[in-house]
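Q: For a teaching handout, I want to show students what a protein-ligand complex looks like in token form. Below are the inputs, and the small molecule is zinc ion. Please produce the holo structure.
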Amino acid sequence: MFTFGVDYYPEHWPEERRAEDARLMAEAGFNLVRLAEFAWSRLEPREGVFDFEWLDRAIAILAGHDIQVVLGTPTASPPPWLMDRSAELFLVREDGRRATFGNRREYCPNNPVYHDYTRRIVTQMAEHYAGCPSVVGWQIDNEFGARCFCPICRTAFQEWLRRRYGSLDELNTRWGAVFWSHEYTGWEQIPVPVETGGSPNPGLALDFYRFASDSYVDYQRMQVDILREKCPDHFVAHNFMGFGYDRIDYFDLARDLDLVAWDIYPRGFWDVRAEVEPSGAALSADTMRGLKHQNFWAMEQQAGPSGWETVGGTPRPGELRLWAYQSIAHGADAVVFFRWRTCRFGTEAYWHGLLDHHGIPGRRYEEIRRMGAEIKRIGEQIHGAAIKPEVAMALSYESRFAFQIQPGHPQFSYAEHFRHIYRALHGRNVPVDVVAPTDDLSSYSLVIAPALHVLSEADVGNLARFVEAGGVLVVTSRTGVKDEHNAVVNQRLPGLLAELCGVVVEEYDALPEGECNELEFVCPGLAGRDASASIWCDVLNSTGATVVARYAQSYYAGEPAIALNEVGAGRVVYVGTFGDAILWSTLVDWLIALAGVKPLLAAPEGVEVTERWQRDRRLLFVLNHTAEEQEVVLDTAGVNLLDGGSVVEGAVAIAPRDVLVILEEQQEEEII
Ligand SMILES: [Zn+2]
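A: Here is the structure, written as tokens, with zinc ion included.
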């Protein structure tokens, strides 16, 4: 069954309304709601006093319409009676200031008292709902994040370091603590890198960021263990925040879960976006799918204009349905909209649901009701279908953390660099998996690993195996600069990857803001193309690689900027600059040709094409993100599942913000 649902807060509305809500939900085709993830003050109104009756009644009404339930554990928003117990329950922010009550996510993830109350509410809920036939799964907490710098975390960090290093001698050596006389003689002396401490030792800061990430992984595991023991038939998930969130290693956070769920708002919330860039949600979806190499849930799919103090742009007619299909096109096996009805009060009074404050169905509800009818018809044909890209991009949270400490250039952003490359692939309708550098790469033809700054022997071994087996690997500037302790390597760059790349970095040059260095391409297939280096220039010396491009300006004019190394059956391309959209647009055409990767379909700008595979049958998704009718030339015949009409090879028109879901014609089996 394809899950099609909505996030619902019955506790925000009079009980008499619930029957009407359930009826309207069923009419919209919803078969699931998420409930209770912010309802701690109703579930445990006073310490040790639990009340599930109101929730039972809400679930019963929904069950009457065959609507199943995912329950949230309510730990993201503790009630005042709990937080009033001690100031130590509140996290301390990076600026050294302690959070106060009144928002959400105020708690310290390492506070043992908070852990006790967490275990109790989660156990009570799990025991109460283990046998409830409507409940199918759990979402733990809500959108984990925010590093805590409190004294409890500091002590826990010192313990974490003791386990990691064993001795202070080892820690002092790895961090280079001799610098500025930071050599520690007691574990209790080790600080946390608050802003008021100035620019910290990079080794200390990277370890603290790892520890802060582990803190949430461990806190989540505590809840996972309870739910698995009490509710063995239910799945356990958490709602992640896409590619953009960079304070937790999402590969680690996903490991203990049955599935990854994701919250997606393409039209933004803090900023009012005139244009929605389709590659933004696409990259997040591909990242979410990559965390466990399996399909994911869209747990909060945008349902209206979003915002707290201010209101983000209103989704245009057709966009909610289009974005929901975009999630599906990238591997969602469930779409759950956030949220049912816009709340009249609270911080999120302007975070709109499908229904406005007044609760009367309007344009957005009708749009999703139409989609609900489609999903009822076609969901089974889509559910579970796999995505099999030939291209992967390696995402390193370790490197991302290290760049938060020392970006190396004020204009450098790891995420933006990653997006530039992804956007070029997305614009050509080349499917991409986002993977960890140590994941199995054997199914890919092309792997792009942007700025793998912190590089381990394991990363290098994995990349080398991929290349030796015939793959094309692309690495970029600032790769291999740091060891696992965030100290600069004692080798010529790109350090552990220098041999594989066939180049060494003789010098590097950080360019002033806005300044470029023209590139002169000297290899066939690229000669004559215009592109430039920006932000950073590695001046390369080939130790075996063929020069692809040279710098045209500055004292290093004529020196190599990009080089290609043949290694066994494979090739490695070193790109010695970050560059801009034009550079990556140019390079991606060349790289996919080099790796023998074929884009799915040529399509006009703003028309996205993806494919999913139901066993050996291909589902082609064509999404028109523009406000005009567009035309694509199909290379296949099949059935458009959405209207049941056949499509044949050749030109087909797509209405503004519309979608085609084409099930390819079954190929006749060859007679042997
Ligand atoms: Zn803390």
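A: Two things your students might notice: Residues 91, 108, 110, 148, 150, 152-153 surround zinc ion (CB under 6 Å). Residues 10 and 17 are 9 Å apart (CA to CA).
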